[in-house]
């Protein structure tokens, strides 16, 4: 089994890699580890000093919790694994503050963090709109968590498909008959189907339309993985952390078997 990196979209951060020589069960294990086991930072507790906005404290707290925070995995540890036994210390928690006065919109960029490595990923996310005379002042506590506890700690969306093998025959007698049934994105400047253009969802759109023109076969041991991060971690960090958590779980399972 090996992994081959394919590409990364600079705008969205979405990365694609090819997992070779695996099984569906193992591929799904990796996918679930990425979604549920990779720790990220998120706001968990909020203490309000002032809130004269039209939004209840609970609504603002929920919004703050769902703001993705850049995460430093080397600088923090999960509360359950911390020396403070989850009571809250500098090794497992981080304080953030927010102080704003209307009129105006309060954005995620207005949140001040005591750690420059941990801050909102998207500073233009709106938190609340304040009218003249309205104020918002609070102190929030962020900590590491995992997606299996709450989705706000999930670092990405991850999915996979079987690796397709695409065969194109533009000289087929049925080409003219079936041409209109294919997505326009798969045709080159000369009006011919280019198999290099048949990517992502276009594979499903071409599969089964006319096998004499476009034939698609799937390798059941190779998987095309896509990772779309929310910004807390890079795709590489997510994949690496997922592998680390799997190794830790397997080691713990082996120790329990020996006992």
What does this structure look like?
This protein is α+β, with helices and mostly antiparallel strands and 259 residues long. It folds into 2 domains: 2-37 and 156-227, Gyrase A, domain 2 (2-Layer Sandwich), CATH 3.30.1360.10; 40-149, RNA Polymerase Alpha Subunit, Chain A, domain 2. It has helices at 24-36, 57-65, 175-178, 201-206, 235-258; strands at 2-8, 15-20, 40-51, 93-101, 104-107, 112-113, 126-130, 135-145, 156-168, 214-229. The strands form 3 sheets. Strands 1-2-10-9 form a 4-stranded antiparallel beta sheet. 28% of the residues are buried.
The order of strands across the largest sheet is 1-2-10-9
Shape: flat
Secondary structure tally: strands: 10
* CATH architectural grouping of the largest domain: Beta Complex
CATH topology of the largest domain: RNA Polymerase Alpha Subunit, Chain A, domain 2
Q: How large is the count of helical segments?
A: 5
As for the number of domains, it is 2
Strand coverage percent: 25-35%
pLDDT < 50 runs, ≥5 residues = none
H-E order: EEHEHEEEEEEHHEH
First-last Cα distance: 31 Å
Main beta-sheet annotation = 4 strands, antiparallel
Mean pLDDT: 94
> Roughly what percent helix?
10-25%
CATH class of the largest domain: Mainly Beta
Q: Name the CATH superfamily classification of the largest domain.
A: DNA-directed RNA polymerase, insert domain
Structural class: alpha+beta
Rounded radius of gyration (Å): 24 Å
